Amino acid sequence: MAEYFGTAVEDIFNTMEERFLSEGTLDVDVTIGYNISGEGGGNWKVTIKEGTLKVEDVDGEVTDCTAILNANAETFVGVTLGKLDAGEAFSSGNIKVDGDLTVLVAVLPKAFKPFKPVIKASAIVESVEERFRPEKAEGVDIKIGYDLSGDGGGQWTVVVKDQTCTLKEVLDDDCTVIMRMEAQVFVDLNQGKLDGGTAFSSGQVKVDGDIGAAGQSASLFEKYVAEGAAEEEGEELISLKCVPSINQRYATGPTMGKWFDGLKEKKFFASKCPQCGRTLVPPREICAQCRVRCNEFVEIGPDATVTLIDVVYYASPDPLTGKIRETPYTALFMVLDGVSRDESFAHDLNPKDIDRIKPGMKVRPVWAEKRTGSYKDLLYFEIAD
Amino acid sequence: MAKKNRNVGIIGIGQTEYSSHKEHQNQAEMVNEAVRYALEDANITLDDIDCVVHGNMELFEMVFQPDMWHSLGSGAYGKDQFRITTGGTTGASLVCAADNLVASGMYDVVMAIGMEKLQEGHTTGGITNMADPLWFRHLQTGALTATTATMMMEEFGEERAKKAAMKYRILMDKHACLNPRAHRRFGLEYDQADDLMNTSPQLVGELRLIHMCSQSDGACVMILASEKKAKKMCKTPVWIRDHITVHREETFNNFGIEMPEMTHHYAARKLFERNGIKDPVEYFDVFEMYDPSAWWGLDWAREFLLLKDDEHIKLLEDGEFDLDGKLPINPSGGVTASNPIGATAMLRPAEAAMQLRGDAGPQQIKKKVKHALASGFGGTLWSVLMMLEKDLDWQEVENG
Amino acid sequence: MEISYEDKKDCKVMTGKMALPNHYFAGRLGSKFIIALRDENKILGVKCEKCDKVFVPPREYCERCMSKLDECWVELSNEGVITNYTVVNYNDKHLPRRAPYILALIKVDGADTPFPHIVEGIDVEDVEVGMKVKAVFAEETTNTIRDLDHFEPV
Lengths: 385, 400, 154
Hints:
CATH topology of the domain at 8-123 and 214-233 in chain B: Peroxisomal Thiolase, Chain A, domain 1
Number of helices of chain B: 15
Number of helices of chain A: 12
Distance between the termini of chain A: 62 Å
Radius of gyration of chain A: 34 Å
Structural class of chain A: alpha+beta
Oligomer: heterotrimer
């Protein structure tokens, strides 16, 4: 089975059920497909519906899901473990998502506890030579036998002599001490989840031979740190998160105020430069090009011709409310009837027109029923036909 | 034209590595790292610095008045200091200000510091807060817009425009992969272009995630000195020949049926005119451009280099913007690779100056580099364009 | 139609708010300082041997001579003196206490730089410069300087 960063792709799917947080998904109804390419890859379909979870290992490429994630096995494992930067994998195209991207960002974090790599007893024993501390082994001459049963178990002998350490994949007959236990108990002991004394007294660990040597052996090795867990063991760096929310007031001044007065009456006003004659929309007090005051106002619109269309998919926080915006929405650039040809105005498009809107089309404003003299008086523009 | 009382040389450059993982440093410590590199590069100490010009863009970090508390790292204690913030243009404005301060005769040696720690804030949210609250803020999505992509697809056809923008993006990544300080180094290949331009997530219209600049942490420092001091203190000073800053009113009013002259074009036209540059592609040996997205980078090459029709696309397609091309663009990898906003526009003259000195590192242009162009961009089309020279041998233009 | 600049009837005020998610990193030195406060109830500073100055909170470099200080840790006393103070007499939601309370500059023994903190356990009228105070640590951590809850008279 192919492993990346010490973890196989299927470990991640096999642990989904135990990591599932049912209470976080009561109002969720999605299916997420995973097409993981490369050695150790495969295809999975994960259905999360009203607090329930179904994980299916399927044959062939997954289609027809709320969102489908495509990645190679190494990238997928690396990102899941936090070993690879998710943003970079995503930007560079190593991870691709079809369908509703927000599902992955909004649903997954509340649906699952983070994946922790499965630590195998064999991995702990096999790293014993790297973890050996020769400076602690002066004059030590012992053979420690491990007899670990169950999944991930096996038999080994660790020989410590002349300040060197060698590992053999057999259980020698002449061991100083042999420790017998379930492989999982061995993992828990090494992870500090189980206390050695308790394990011994409760019979979970059986020791044959020199019990003193068993106790002494602990100091001969560095603590085992799983590859995926390395970061958690690193130094603690303090960071603080907060969302400062500052109430603000902004004065329109009389020129922009005129514009809002107009909206209340379903009218658009532009200011007009007395020198170059161009109109300014929304009105500004000064023509920045001629550097003169524009005291004259002309009524313009209400219909407009579309020049550019920006369909926004990226959901960012709305600074006026602090809430994440709903996407997609359309920022429509247009020239209101009767204004200078280089003076565009931008506003929302009626969402129902997103698929039909084209540059050059005529659009008309749709007004709020109750108008108070703010930008909210104008709901959006829509295709005029 | 802008008249200089005396010539000004760049004598020291310092940059941190750019990344999104600087949890181990606070802002002042990050600034200090770049200050140290710059002092080391110039082979001077803080005692030699007369004045510090410091800047970043607001609203990206949780702390304000950084110029004050950064003095722990900047070394500004007891020295004259200014703070400048002009949005994305900040880094370029800092260099322009330092140049003006030295040229005027006020100070002999000035240190300019640009910094940003974008991981500490919300970049798109921060930029959105800079839009007019009365009219555009509810629509704006930070610096994300596909208006240029739409216009280019209209002008050159969808297929050619998309291919060209992606070629530009991959070229930038290839340069970034050479630059050990660059933040994002993907290792993209040209045969991925078709796939990326159709499958990379859409942010706004045809502006896709892959096209857009990174969000980086980092600081950049440049030390400028008067000609006399520069020659005395430094073996290879790089000379700031001229620079121009151009801005205009709110750009979101500029997408009408006719487009007004873009500030980039206006800046280039005026700057080249007053310096007697007839053919910028021919004259300059490197162009470090502030290119916040691949679409903008390619489109702005036309504006800054005063090119017509599809000349810029042809130059790209023919490999003339490559490191061994006629006019290499962004050997550093540009803004799509590294973007600590308040420093980003300083990275441009910094890289250009290193290219002129010949010690830029793995991304050094092989042929001789004598004349460099660097641009800055921010806010709603605030353009800075700067000319750097290896030698003090240019001809002043009469009445230029 | 013309507008008159004497007439304010067209002038309006729009209200809104700015809400931005922020994330601040204390860095290695800042973290060590806070962790020592939090876990060991100790106040750490750094010493610049060249300038013979002990700075608290710690900083990576001496701002005077630019010597690197990140290895020059010194443990300071939890007691110190008030070098200056003010009494906060207004209430605001961002303030750490209800008014009136004492905000003082406290120089702990062994440090050359004072830092601001709250002084409690004394009437606001009775505070004075030179008063000896000692640190009282917070029961619950916020991973900030407020893990040192306040100072009180010795």
